[in-house]
Amino acid sequence: MIALVDYGAGNLTSVRKAFTTLGAQYFTPTTPGECADVSALVVPGVGHFNATAAIDAPWRDAIASAVSRGTPLLGICVGMQWLFEGSDEAPGVPGLGALPGRIHRLEGNAVERLKVPHVGWNALDFEQPARILAGLTSGAQVYFTHSFAAPVTSDCAAATTHANTFASVVERDNIFGVQFHPEKSSDAGLRILRNFLDLVKGQASC
Amino acid sequence: MLTKRIIACLDVRDGQVVKGVQFQELKHAGDPAELSRRYNVEGIDEVVILDITATLERRQALAKTIAAVAHEIFLPLTVGGGIRTEEDADAAVEAGADKVSLNTAALRNPGLITTLANRYGSQAVIVAIDAKRRDDTFAVYVRSGTSDAARDAVAWARQAEEYGAGEILLTSMDRDGTRAGFDCEMTAAVSDAVNIPVIASGGAGTFEHFADVFTDGHADAALAASIFHYAESSVSDLKHYLRDRGIPTRL
Fold first, then answer.
1. Among this protein's residues, is A85 annotated catalytic?
2. Number of domains in chain B
3. What is the ipTM of this complex?
4. Is residue B216 part of a domain?
5. FRET label pair with B23: which of A64, A67, B57, B92, CA 20 to 30 Å apart?
6. Domains (ranges, CATH) in chain A?
């Protein structure tokens, strides 16, 4: 069973719909203890990094402990940003710190009319082979809506450019993150979610 | 590179898609879920459901229609029409909307923009502006275009952004349903005044009109209804046309 972490940041309806369509079994844990025996953890997110403050110390410890035991973790949008050390959007709120680096604000470009927030379909430029991107080719288009983004580090599987280049997909061992919304990215997005579910299944049968 | 979005609008009344000319003379145009399925296959980037009679008849957006469309597509789905309170927005989101579009209610109570932006994030809050040319300015109308709001579209768009709107959906009432082309001048005036994306609406009749609104109109996205509903033009053909003219699209 996959734990869908609901920290009150908006809307899980479309993430639930996508997982249901893909045949995944999931639930929303109500206590940190329920994260102990799950097959995978998903941290979705929309809106402000501040909202992740609701994932308080007991939740963080429970998630970190599951991840250290090898449980796959997928962060979506703000959920991906939360995998890093912290964000300039809410400097007082720590991230999980599972990946090194900090989240910075995107810079627009008035001359080229590149606005922030970055809203719409943009390309994934592959940086290195990644299990989460199986079956996709570099240049695949996915749907973004955000104003802050992660730096390109050694964990970056795909990068995207909007005035500057940022990490749009990260993968390290059992930790995965996507800055865009796979649940709103049509076939390419569903493929990424299916890749994650396949990884979870593979893990469970080991 | 960020692509220019093509958005299909479903004006819905009593669970069916309808389309009028300059907000009048409504005609039947099909089933919302069926049309959404076709648009998704053709490569539409987003879908907007507008419950066009909701403001006048004081009905909430049709949850059943939203759920039926959301079931068909894994694309951003916006719902507007008669969203006046936080509860109305909650009902739309609960039914499967990713964004809500506020029009009359935002002008009457701009605090609602902020309330919903705090609750769902700015990306989930679109402020829809219906405007008509008046001399050299663009006058805002509300209540499905029946009432003069005594506001200027450019100034109102700027304020809406300050209140927390994530996007502006700008409809030219002069052009709506006429297929005479988007009002590029109005779209550029609003787009240049704000930092958030502007969706141009009203007047799409040819592929060239889309190219014009992305270049001369500085639009981030273009929304159309009639041109797609009657299967005269496919979304895919439109996107290829735009790409051939150097306008980036998702293919």
1. no
2. 1
3. 0.91
4. yes
5. B92
6. 2-205 (3.40.50.880)
